Amino acid sequence: MSRKKLIPDPDTAKPCCFISIVGTQVFGTLNPLLAVLAKGLPLTRICLLATPQVQAEAERIKAFCEKRDLACDIHPIAIISNLTADDAAPAVAFSLAKSHAESGERCIFDLNGGTNALTAAALLHLLPLQPYTIQVGNTAAVLTDTENENSESCDCIENLSIQEILSLQGVAVASAAPDDLSFSIIEFCKRGKIPLPTKSLQNVVIGDLRFELVWSGPNNKLYFLYNAFSRNTPSTELDMLRNVEHWAQTRQRVGHLFDRTLYAISDNPIVHEHLKKESGGKIEALNAAGWKKDPHILREVLQQCFGREQRLQPFQPRKRKSQPVPDGTLVTMIGKDPQATFAAIATHRAQHVLLGYTQKNQNTANRVKQLLESKGGSEVRLFVCDPTGADIPASLAAPEHPETVAVHITPGTKGQGAFLACWAARQHCQVWAFNMPKATSERLDAAAQPVPIVAADSLTVLRAHGNSVHCADEDEPAARKERAGHSDALLDFLRQAMNTGFDLTRMIARGMKGKFSPQAFTVNQLTLSNPSRKKWELRDNNGTFCQFCEKGGEWLERLVSRAFEQAGATDVHTRVRIAWSTETMDYLRTRHSDKENFFVRDMDVLGSYGSRNFLVSCKARTDYRTLEKDAREAAHMAPLIGRFTLPFLCHLGCQKSCLFEGSEGSRKMLVQVIGWRDLCHPEKLQHYLEELPTKIS
């Protein structure tokens, strides 16, 4: 990285204007501001660009600054989300920075605020004015001079109290009784004289989740310790696991905290792996199995856990050989969620992909490369970069024909997206980003026709996380074709029969109750009957079309799959299962010798429709009283595919479709509930697939 000109010392620096796009994460603005103040750069003005949705967050930031009695003006400025409008972030940021530049001042632009697309688009507008950029992450704060692409770490920023961090994010905290757990980690620490983190809260409830310990580390990062030791009953334990996994996956449940780590300690290998796999990497699952025989096991786990918050590494520029960028290449990143990376590649039909990754997610990057190349669609090369992205401009060579090269800045961190956009702008490459509400990929650097987003295959995303995935549809084409034909026949029968007063729910419910009694219903020479208990067949005058068994509900899963395929869905998969690790499988077999197959998770139907993945949980039971529990299960499973996966519940007891509305903490939960009649109308399923994203957004 260039060292031609160092970032000036505070005594020699020009006065500066701090500009930040305010997002739902308050500390996306506050942490960079605190870093600038720690650096000592002279600020004349703080500009907070906020859409109507985050006006409350902007006011909290302003109030915080006013309490600090800063010697500068603080201005919340209203903007809109449209990137190209005169009152949108890019144009407003440029206007502010230009007016200050004319007065001899430089702009410091915050890379942590707002969305990836807003931040990158604003930075592209600011580049001619050569601003500083500031960002704060897992490393020390990094200040970059875009004039010469020199970056350096700032001094440690001010660390606030836990209560202040949570209050600024609008998170309510309640105390919990310390004696309602079967085992207390805090009491174990007291008895074993294990020092707790200096700044910590004990036994607190946030939303509906109880943590034994919450503590803070550098950069105002919060750490949460969850006691996942075994509960009394399997059902209670499963509900517990789903709740804590959903909390980890969903930022809304803890006020969109800027940076947080959730530790969950268990002494059961099954619980440990469940937390690790089902959280999508959002939980640091800690295994304390065997600690009752050897307490040092738990002691060592806790000591390592409490010591991690002190390990803050400053940014270190690295000298690397620049990666060549051939013509026609798509350059993008791989972040925590590979769904966005796969979608970017599929959307732009990239044949050549240059994929950036950090050392921490190297394994994921290797899996993504292998999965993409195994399908024969894309040639993938990898390059390593810092989480801040500050070393990206030095990591990529100038392309020979830049107009053929595109970068996509949605995957990865905001810093990576911003510096990737900077490199692209200077090389005259294309810059693209997702606009999820419009379901399009849009160009940020020039006027161009938007491209419809193509969702990634769900199985590919699950495998990119390192899961061993089994799918019932991945077998011989002949078998798949035969099953599809059976489902088509049953759907055809249901479409004809539903107009004659036929009720599939009532028919199957009668077969489940009391003594077995044969039933039959005929329409247009098609007959559905149960010649034996819980065995059903569909036949015409020439013979049997198909047979199915009520037990297990596989018939409903295949019916749902075909109905969604007829509605235009793609990459539809039935009975998708995530396997345990070999070690956990061995553990399970020692305790359940009568079972042959064990799975962490069983997903009934997965698929894609346009820009979105969807998940359908199928319940082949007629008792509708479990609706809320079943809907919550679907809502908890959907994020395993990715943030934007749509949750559906197909319940045999549902007589009329509805939108289930629940809540998890402060987050609204929406699940589209459908019944067998909806499966008979492809246009209805299309409507639900198109409408649900707008309601969730």
Label the structural class: alpha/beta
Provide the CATH architecture of the largest domain: 3-Layer(aba) Sandwich
Quick check: average pLDDT?
Answer: 87
- What is the count of distinct domains? 4
Strand content: 25-35%
Strands of the biggest beta sheet: in what spatial order?
A: 3-2-1-4-5-6-7
Task: Give Rg in angstroms.
Answer: 28 Å
* Contiguous helical run count: 21
Biggest sheet statistics = 7 strands, mixed
Q: CATH class of the largest domain, anyone?
A: Alpha Beta
Distance between the termini: 41 Å
DSSP E strands, number? 31
Binned, the helix content reads 25-40%
CATH level-3 fold name of the largest domain: Restriction Endonuclease
Low-confidence stretches: none
Description:
The chain has four domains: 16-153, Hypothetical protein VC1899 like domain (Restriction endonuclease-like) (Rossmann fold), CATH 3.40.50.10770; 162-310, 3-Layer(aba) Sandwich (Trna Endonuclease, Chain: A, domain 1); 329-453, Rossmann fold, CATH 3.40.50; 470-696, Restriction Endonuclease (3-Layer(aba) Sandwich). The chain contains 21 helices and 31 strands. The protein has 697 residues and is α/β, with parallel strands linked by helices. Helix 4 packs parallel to helix 13 and helix 15 (477-497) packs across helix 17 (554-566). Strands 3-2-1-4-5-6-7 form a seven-stranded mixed sheet, with helices on both faces. It has a seven-stranded mixed sheet with strand order 16-15-14-17-18-19-20, with helices on both faces. The chain has a seven-stranded mixed sheet with strand order 21-26-27-28-29-31-30, sandwiched between helices.
